[in-house]
Design goal:
- It is a single chain.
- By secondary structure, this protein is an alpha+beta fold.
- It has one domain: Aldehyde Oxidoreductase, domain 3 (Alpha-Beta Complex).
- About 30% of the residues lie in helices and about 40% in strands.
- The chain is built from four helices and eleven strands; from the N terminus they run E-E-E-H-E-E-E-H-E-E-E-H-E-E-H.
- The strands form three sheets. Strands 5, 6, 8, 10 and 11 form a five-stranded antiparallel β-sheet that branches.
- The chain is globular.
- The N terminus is likely disordered.
């Protein structure tokens, strides 16, 4: 794995909580920079883990861009009740690593955290969370957009949509990860 993933991948971190009454320290699990999870997504926490992974170099960053994909209540003129996501986790994580590597090659100063939910998600819940850091806002924006475009193109994550009267699997990733045309298309969309 490249140096893109320096910093905490998982484990425990010492955290301080300050209240108006006392200061308490406790230890809690640290999420990975790249993750598939059944737990609700916490964009602020993911961005904080990304900042911690950058460490002393964080002072060089001038921008953090975040993206939170939500379950909406409609699709194709149907009222959606909820969604279920499934993923082949080992391959999905390798795909996330590939996306991060592509970003590192194209935008070397950018850093990325990418988490996707699986399981049942209700309307309004977050299905995907992305945080990108960079010295300049343009690279942070394009990194975030490129990441979601590539997830949609190549990640082995499937969505089942439930609506009144039935359910349907929504077409997911169809591009070959090695297809340079698909990669160029994602880059064009990100840079548009």
């Amino acid at each position: 794995m490249s140096d893109f993933f320096t910093g905490p991948k998982s484990g425990r971190i010492e955290t301080s909580v300050v209240s108006c009454f006392s200061r308490t320290s406790y230890t809690e699990p640290v999420p990975s920079l790249l993750a598939i999870t059944s737990e609700p997504l916490d964009l602020e926490r993911i961005a904080a883990v990304l900042a911690a992974s950058v460490g002393a170099d964080a002072g060089a960053d001038g921008a953090v861009v975040t993206f939170l994909g939500l379950v909406r209540n409609h699709n194709q003129a149907r009222s959606v009740r909820y969604l279920e996501y499934e993923a082949y986790e080992p391959l999905a994580l390798k795909t996330f690593e590939r996306i991060a590597t592509e970003i590192r090659e194209r935008w070397p100063s950018a850093r990325l955290a990418l988490h996707h939910r699986v399981g049942r998600l209700e309307i309004g819940e977050a299905s995907v969370a992305i945080a990108a850091r960079s010295p300049h806002r343009a690279d942070a924006y394009v990194t975030c957009r490129y990441a979601i475009e590539r997830v949609k193109q190549i990640a082995p994550i499937w969505k089942r949509e439930f609506f009144d009267g039935g359910d349907v699997w929504i077409e997911g990733a169809t591009a070959d990860p090695d297809d340079e045309r698909a990669r160029a298309e994602a880059e064009r969309a990100a840079c548009a």
